[in-house]
Design brief:
Mean pLDDT: 88
Structural class: alpha/beta
Largest sheet: 6 strands, parallel
Number of helices: 4
Shape: elongated
Strand content: 15-25%
Strand order of the largest sheet: 3-2-1-4-5-6
Low-confidence stretches: 130-134
Radius of gyration: 17 Å
Number of strands: 6
């Protein structure tokens, strides 16, 4: 399941996300999209979903106080913002162990190791696999980092 949490406004770019999701559905017919939020673009989003025939694949929930509980059903968090301050929802998703696919306009500070920056191109944005290993937490990735750290610390004494 691809997920997105945010106000439905031009900055958050959910209309683009729906187009990208339609491309994903061509390769992954069982894919689902969960959108959580509300805003000025809600009617446009509903219309685009209908135009693309995605009604059975997209679930929309209005703004929730417990949206953080929804990360557990997501395989990937899509964050196609056109501009962004920091992107707290992307940080929350990573804390929950969810990989984030983000536009190049999301600040580098939001990357906690489960980030993949993608261009805002409908065919490319969701083209990566949702089950990519979470390298930030793989022992094979972290063992050399820890070894290097301890060697430097021991050599300082």
């Amino acid at each position: 399941m691809v997920g997105n949490i945010g106000r439905m406004i031009p900055q958050k770019n959910q209309l683009f996300l729906i187009d990208a999701f339609a491309e994903l559905k061509k390769r992954e017919p069982k894919a689902k999209l969960l959108l959580i939020g509300d805003g000025e673009l809600r009617k446009d989003i509903d219309q685009k979903i209908a135009e693309l025939g995605l009604e059975d694949s997209v679930r929309i929930e209005k703004r929730r106080e417990d949206a953080n509980k929804c990360y557990s059903v997501m395989d990937v968090f899509a964050f196609p913002s056109i501009y962004e301050g920091l992107g707290m929802v992307a940080i929350e998703a990573q804390v929950a162990g969810v990989r984030v696919v983000a536009s190049e306009y999301v600040p580098l500070e939001a990357d906690m190791g489960l980030f993949q920056y993608r261009p805002l191109d409908v065919r490319k944005f969701l083209s990566g696999r949702a089950d990519t290993k979470k390298k930030a937490y793989e022992i094979s990735e972290q063992a050399p980092v820890l070894k290097n750290y301890y060697e430097k610390e021991l050599c300082r004494e």
